[in-house]
Amino acid sequence: MSIKTNTLYNFLKVLSWIIFLALCVQTGAFIFNYVFSLFKPIATQDLYLELDLSELYESSKADYSILFLLLIATSALKSFLFYWVVSLFRKLNFVRPFSAEIVTQIVRIGYIAVIAGLLSILALQYALQLESKGNDLSFITKYWNDYAGFLMMGVVVFVIVQIFKKGIELQNENDLTL
């Protein structure tokens, strides 16, 4: 591997770790805020990232819980996605880059990306439905506006899986001819 490629690889590895840790902190903060707000309803006014769901909490605790659980679930899926990306970096082998284990990791990443995108669409639609009932949730919909990016990433990842599968075939053929 050239110095430039190695530097880029290490940069992407560190960046993936930073994103993974940041998403874990965000997910943990959402979980803590939700649990804390159940015991101290006054906390619904000043949640993590300046979320104010106090009106929704007052009007419907069930809608508040569903919306917050959707927020936690999408954040957790994004964290889980980057867990598998970080794990992929640990398993990459540049001597024999095409392996069934790597393909399995990449397939997991693709599935999680698609599920995160679909869940974001569901959560966004739910928030918009609550908004149509008179709740002001315009500040929370920004957390689910990245659904198209996750869906597209899932599709791109599945294309990469097909390339890796062909790479495995070629690598095995090459091993047999030696």
From TrEMBL:
It holds the Pfam family DUF2975. It comes from the Bacteria. The chain crosses the membrane at residues 12-36, 64-86, 106-127, 147-164. InterPro entries: DUF2975. Signal peptide: none annotated. Keywords: Membrane, Transmembrane, Transmembrane helix. This is DUF2975 domain-containing protein. It comes from Chryseobacterium gallinarum. The lineage of its organism: Bacteria, Pseudomonadati, Bacteroidota, Flavobacteriia, Flavobacteriales.
